[in-house]
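[agent] plan:
  1. take the single chain provided in the ticket
  2. run structure prediction with default settings
  3. attach structure tokens to the ticket
  4. add a short note for the reviewer (M.T.)
[agent] executing step 1
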Amino acid sequence: METAAAVPICVLLLTSAEDLDCTPGFQQKVFHIDQPAEFIEDQAILNLTFSDCKGNDKLHYEVSSPYFRVNTDGSLVALRNITAVGKTLFVHARTPHAEDMAELVIVGGKDIQGSLQDIFKFARTSPVPRQKRSIVVSPILIPENQRQPFPRDVGKVVDSDRPEGSKFRLTGKGVDQEPKGIFRINENTGSVSVTRNLDRETIATYQLFVETVDVNGRTLEGPVPLEVIVIDQNDNRPIFREGPYIGHVMEGSPTGTTVMRMTAFDADDPATDNALLRYNIRQQTPDKPSPNMFYIDPEKGDIVTVVSPALLDREVSGKTHHFPFTRIEHGFHTREDFQATVEEGAMGVIVNLTVEDKDDPTTGAWRAAYTIINGNPGQSFEIHTNPQTNEGMLSVVKPLDYEISAFHTLLIKVENEDPLVPDVSYGSSSTATVHITVLDANESPVFYPDPMMVTKQENISVGSVLLTVNATDPDSLQRQTIRYSVYKDPAGWLNINPINGTVDTTALLDRESPFVHNSVYTALFLATDSGNPPATGTGTLLITLEDVNDNAPFIYPTVAEVCDDAKNLSVVILGATDKDLHPNTDPFKFEIHKQTVPDKVWKISKINNTHALVSLLQNLNKANYHLPIMVTDSGKPPMTNITDLRVQVCSCKNSKVDCNAAGAPHFSAATALLLSLFSLARKFTKL
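[agent] step 2 finished; step 3 output follows
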């Protein structure tokens, strides 16, 4: 026996592919809560949903107000009865893998001095807001490698004291510095959006700055730092930077002797599980005198000997293969390859793995335990043992996307519940490969954006183009066409081109229509692909209608009573209203229409922008009088309406009001003259 020998070892690393289906953070980032008379202690206000896509281990919530907390189930509750909490609350959620901020807007809430000063300070970021600042920012967390569509909103800046007419401005690396154009801000709303996918391994954080400026571009407040943190995804394969590796071990070395250490590198975030490496020996050549002569520490990468010193013999494990050794192998026999097919989007059991075990079926030495050891990075598959048959039931637990991957290959290991006896090991027949084919399913087209929003004036001409909708087919590998149609158009105002999606009007749009709510008209459209069978997606269009002066005002009431001997000659206070919006409404102008000089016994006087007083200049005899009242709004051009005010002059004696004897209607002299001329004209016509 020679003193030393080199043992060749091939080491391969099992890796994990990325799972980008989950986006870390709050599912909803902005909530609106109506200010109640009082927040009641321990009464749930709303439920927040946060996920770090890793199981939410060590999830911790913080609330910007000391009077609230978030329970472990995500419910926000008050710690005591409280009436005023300000206009905004912030909830910060954090785990070792992700963090995010949710904004709670208190509708009807009142400002409280300093209520926004006690916002959280993040371990990795600057404070969210600082003293003496009305600009409120919170760090923005964006997963890398996001897919279309872009741009997409990722955060929002709030300025509670922003002067009217001022705008937000965003600067820094990724905006106006290279790489330019990655981020932008809505200068009016403060919404921050990202225009393309990010790569954490290229740039892990972006330090941006937000300020408010006037119409001339002069800074009013700021700049305030805004940090954008790119959340790592498992998108880098571990690599061995060196190699080949050569280790040496002395013949006859004791069991457990360290041969060498393997070191791999992963470019993902070392603070996350994405860069957590586990080592495994995949192949040993030659495989005699034992196929399992070495073991690698799955975490450290240390390769050590696991056989007796007698088997570490150069003459046996080298070129000479005549060592009289019989390997004892556990009696599992599994089919090496399985085939399965599954439709895109379907879930459930797709294949049963069968094994043969000669041990007693009533013991743990017979019961099989299956494990997926490779090919399941997205955790889309699970395998469980059928207790009656000992088969492994492989299931799809997360819908598969044909457009992402049409094929999956899983490596599955099977072991017993009970450990093997000494000198018995699992052989190659204790693993199996499952080849899974994903069948493409016809998916519904998707509108983007959804909802679609457009602002137009009411009463625009028939045939006016509102917008062109856009729907895409997720089945990117199929060459399908999309046709558009109207699904719900309550007022019957719209038409859509079935080919290009252009929406135009078929009637006048009326903001005052009962089908319009809060100046917004809602319509639904369908996008249908040419698949077999076809699939249909639904999109929502919100049309905000701007008011034009197309409604004349009208007065109320239209009937009044007054005593024939009244000392107070005030008759009635008239009000006016208009279906339009300001400035097409008040102030209204009230007039008596065409009152002749001899008949001037009426007077109308303005009270305010919406009301006027009708009064008499002298007492009148008991009768019914019809007084034409003309009211005009302030629109450009203005709209006018003339309404008859019926005034009953009644007898009021001995505390009794008698209007029944008022007799026939009494008209002004001008009105009577017109009636006489009309009657005379009819007589001549008959002659």
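[agent] step 4 note for reviewer: The mean pLDDT is 79.
[agent] ticket updated
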